[in-house]
Structure formats: structure tokens, C-alpha cells
Amino acid sequence: MIKVGQINCLEVTNKAEFGIFLDAGEYGTTLLPYKFAPQEVEVGQSIDVFLYFDSDRQLVATTEKPIAQVGEWGLMKVEGVNSTGAFVNWGIKDKDLLVPFSEQRGRLREGQTILVYVYTDKASGRIVGTTKFNKWLDNTPANYKTNQSVDLLIAERSELGYKAIINGQHWGMIFPSDIFGKLFIGKTLKGYIKQIRSDGKIDLSLQKVGVAKMDDLSAKVLELLEKKGGFLPLNDKSTPEAIFAAFRTSKGTFKKTIGGLFKQGKIKIEKDGIYLVDDSDIK
After folding, report:
1. Which CATH superfamily includes the segment(s) 7-62?
2. DSSP state of 66
3. Does domain 149-205 have CATH number 2.40.50.140?
4. What is the pTM for the complete model shown?
5. Whose CA is closest to 130, among 186, 66, 80, 86?
6. Is residue 282 over pLDDT 50?
7. Domain 211-281, what fold?
8. Considering only CA atoms, which of 22, 95, 23 is closest in space to residue 57?
9. Which alpha helices (DSSP H) does 228-250 contain, by range?
């Protein structure tokens, strides 16, 4: 089934002087200009193309990759504004994406970089964007468990912290006490469910919580020590930035973790870093 607004794998049915024709199923055939076509493509081969409608409602194919397909979020720059709405660059050279005024949470201005959700308007069949995310989120039960790994997209910043989209389906909040490293709108990263409150709101963490956090980091420290020949130039005096770069965790968690490993006799902590204790060193 052909999915307009997404990448499809289509078969080459014919070649002409100006491009190649692709089998677009229920839409018939669509033209892919040679400037977008792979070199030496032959009839019968299949290629991946992004499909969209032009202003005349004709199906267009391109091998350009959009910033976001239908059903996805993406960070896009506003290229212009007219009486219809704002037009943003979604990675397709000859086609900006319309964000109608009715789909703008606040009036957009040329030059802004914003997070946009791409969808197909049921009434017009047109692919458009929106900055009103609430109607696309929290429409299904949030059946998450504490410490469950999830995909996060940073969507908003507020006085409480950062709002993130969880697995493309739900809202969650990362509070300042759980933030380390740099966060910004549009950033994608792995995170963990910290808790689901009685009101259904979800708190997030960028690392596992409780004992599981310590156990997980302990394993990572020992594994990296093995790979690095038994030494890492990190200890409890290292900067938060250096620790985050190596383990994507806070300095406080790292200090507690290596302290635990030291007490277990698995590492030595020296001024220049930490050393893996070899079995032969244990008397």
C-alpha cells in the first residue's frame, strides 16, 4: 500500500529522457526526475522515494529525505509567512511544509526554528505541520514501568524543567534535579521512566533510578576498564563534563558507583584515575 508523506520502495516501470517512472500502486505511476534518481537504475529495480502531493495535487517522488515524515516530529526553520500560515523547510528542496495559522500555538515568524509534527489533514488530504502537539499525545494508556528505557524527544522548556515526548506517544517531564548534560528543543535521546503519578503525569530520568542505576553504571565502568586495558583517567575529582562524556551520568552517581566498586575490591582509585584490580592483585 502506498503511503503518501512517507518513504516507499517503488519499482521502476519505464525510463524517459527527463526521468524514470515508478509504479505508485493505486495512484498509477509517478515521475522521478533524473536529478533525483540513482545512477544506472534499470527497469525492474526498486528504489526508496519520498512521496508527496504538489500544489496541483499531483503525486511527486523524490529521493530527498525529509526532516520528518507523516507521523513524526522534526526541528524546522520558518522560511516565510503569508495569509495562509507559515512555511517551514522540511528538507524537500522544491516544497516547503505549511503550518496553518489554526495549527500554530503562537504566531510564527520567519527565521524561527521550531519543532513541528507532520500529519495528513483528513479534510483536504494535504500534508501539513502543527505546533499543537496535545491532540496527538496521551491518547493511549501509559503502560510504562519504573526504569523502563524509552525514546525521548525534547519538546518544550518551562520553569519546571523540560517536557519530552515519550516514544512518540506521551508527554513526560524531566525536572532540573534529573538533568545533566545539555538539553535543547529537538534533541533525541534515551531516557527512563522515573514514576507515573496518581494523576497520570509521567516523571522522567536520564539514567536509571535507585539501585538499578548503580548496578547499571557499575557494569559499564567495569566493561570500559576492560576495554581500556584496566585504566580510566577519571575519578571523584573529574569534571561533570568529562564524566558525562564517558558514561552519560551525573558526577554524584559516578562517585557513588566507583566508591561501591572500591569497597568491593574491584577497582583502585588513584590521583590520575581508576584502575581495575586484577585477580592476581588480590591476596
Report:
1. Nucleic acid-binding proteins (2.40.50.140)
2. P
3. yes
4. 0.76
5. 86
6. no
7. Arc Repressor Mutant, subunit A (1.10.10)
8. 95
9. 240-247
